[in-house]
């Protein structure tokens, strides 16, 4: 809509507008040298997972989550994430970081350890939430890992765009409305990113034990689908029948988004009522509703804001508007030691710029149904020759539609390259164009080709990559100042947790009731 106006700016002004804020969250399982899930507690050298700014855990005690700060270049984000990995390998002993989204060899659910965050109310809330996920979906599903990409435009970009579009809205209302425009476009085209970046076409045999599935056997240790892209994003992974059948989170406005999530956190769901909340004085879950909190909402993209200490996230989002968006559909790429590379970030930045500057239709029931259908089709059959998706009620070949989107993105990549005197963005786009015409170049296609050529199961493929990645990081140890910085962060995080626990006087039952009461008021 307004890209031509960017091209008319001088380079300094354009560079200020198109310098984006981003952060990366990468999840990784700690595994033993034999490739099974580590049973050891979170390493003490990593400090407190409740308060450490860079190293925490997700669902399991053995599931690390690595967090970069907000940074203004893709290179800086990659360098920071690389530094965290090198720090981890300095302290991990003989354990390794699993290279793939789908998990390593798993035993029964009851030996997958929940993450423990200490005795504070906040710590107990975090562990109770994870307990609820285990009861609702099984602990094995929660060991699936991903890369999350947090993204926002600069304040100067919003000021410029608001002026260019002659909006008389408040800054908060304008920015929020336009972020929802971006998210609707993203969701409508999210099947494309699943196809291009999906890296989980196969799973270890242990993952599907005692679970219903429609996968076929690759070998004695592996199940797969021959044209799958991201089984992590399908029915075996982050899809919830309860959410699909009973809630419709609407991306047409902030009010509808917040109210639909708040309703799901308040509406009781009979199968979860059967689990119970507090059983024999032990909390099984936070509540018996469709969602325990907004964090349980499984989606390809989320509206985000950083709440203040003790502040309810949805209430803060409703009052202050969208601050940034979180892209959640990225598999861990096992061919890249960090799970994500600079070229992928350059493509994502181009795609998100395309999404904000392209007309964004309101999502009606038809579009919402097509978003889900196209996602699952791309997940299970994405590389199938001649595959067709649904576009506004009509069948459209994936290859033709994908090529059209990438062609439309060309002008945005060129504008970014022109602004920053580079060819990074057009090169990143070219990589993805090649994946549209040659499905074997996608990560999912490469994985299955390597497994077939080497005649190895998924476990051996992922373990081979895991060992390569460990060597990549250990061959470049941290310098003494960086090592000291991480040691200081760990010490400070422990002090911060102790301070929270020392001042935490409220009874947990009352604390939890107060939290849930806020959602009732939204």
What distinguishing features does this structure have?
single chain, 522 residues, alpha+beta, seven-stranded antiparallel beta sheet, three-stranded antiparallel beta sheet, 49% helix, globular
Walkthrough of the structure:
The chain is α+β, with helices and mostly antiparallel strands and 522 residues long. It contains 20 helices and 14 strands. The two termini are 35 Å apart. Strands 1, 2, 3, 4, 5, 11 and 12 form a seven-stranded antiparallel sheet that branches. It has helices spanning 3-7, 11-17, 74-91, 121-137, 139-142, 155-164, 171-188, 190-197, 241-246, 254-266, 270-275, 313-320, 342-357, 365-381, 398-420, 424-437, 443-454, 458-474, 480-502, 508-521, and strands spanning 21-31, 55-57, 63-67, 96-97, 147-152, 202-204, 216-219, 222-224, 278-279, 282-283, 301-304, 324-330, 388-391, 394-397. The protein is globular, with a radius of gyration of 23 Å. The model has no long low-confidence stretch (mean pLDDT 95).
Give the topology:
Elements: H1 3-7, H2 11-17, E1 21-31, E2 55-57, E3 63-67, H3 74-91, E4 96-97, H4 121-137, H5 139-142, E5 147-152, H6 155-164, H7 171-188, H8 190-197, E6 202-204, E7 216-219, E8 222-224, H9 241-246, H10 254-266, H11 270-275, E9 278-279, E10 282-283, E11 301-304, H12 313-320, E12 324-330, H13 342-357, H14 365-381, E13 388-391, E14 394-397, H15 398-420, H16 424-437, H17 443-454, H18 458-474, H19 480-502, H20 508-521
Antiparallel strand pairs: 1-3, 1-4, 1-5, 2-3, 5-12, 6-8, 7-8, 9-10, 11-12, 13-14
Helix pairs in contact: 2-15, 7-13, 8-14, 10-12, 13-15, 13-16, 15-16
